[in-house]
Design goal:
It is built from 5 helices and 4 strands. The protein is an alpha+beta fold. It has a single domain, classed as Glutaredoxin. The chain has a 4-stranded mixed β-sheet with strand order 2-1-3-4, sandwiched between helices. The radius of gyration is 15 Å and the shape is globular.
């Protein structure tokens, strides 16, 4: 099972304190998108944003999902894909990652959530972002991917 919110090395007590503080400070956010099935992967895009998440990662993943949803509405030529690493979704995510040619990216990040990979249209990993970031950070990574055609 994936280690939630990239806190693999923190003690359980530190994680519990952080999770409690974050849960009380943040409102619950809607779930972004389910993993894109392999048959729907778009080959005609200018950049690709891939979110590796776990269904149990509600705090940090819940911060990232609405930001990516906003960005998805702003960038029509950027493909947004989410890969679920939970027990129930991993098989489908592996299939999607294989179709997209990013199996290695998924395999390297299967134990962490959330991880965002921003890829150029040629499939080159431009930026890997672990944990929640400000919208500006994602914008900069997407801009960098779009300019690396």
């Amino acid at each position: 099972m994936a280690h939630l919110c990239s806190l693999k090395k923190l003690s359980q007590k530190a994680f519990a304190v952080f999770a409690l503080a974050a849960a009380t400070a943040l409102p619950l956010t809607p779930v972004w998108a389910e993993p894109t099935p392999a048959k729907k992967v778009d080959a005609n895009y200018d950049a690709r944003v891939v979110m590796v998440y776990d269904r149990e990662c509600s705090v940090w993943c819940g911060q990232v999902k609405p930001i990516l949803s906003d960005l998805q509405s702003e960038y029509k030529k950027v493909e947004f894909v989410s890969l679920d690493t939970s027990k129930e979704g991993l098989s489908g995510s592996k299939s999607t990652a294989k179709t997209m040619g990013i199996s290695k990216f998924l395999a390297e990040n299967v134990d962490y959530a959330p991880v965002i990979g921003v890829f150029s249209s040629k499939g080159k990993l431009i930026k890997e972002l672990v944990g929640p970031k400000k919208k500006e950070i994602y914008l900069a990574a997407i801009s960098q991917a779009l300019s690396s055609k």
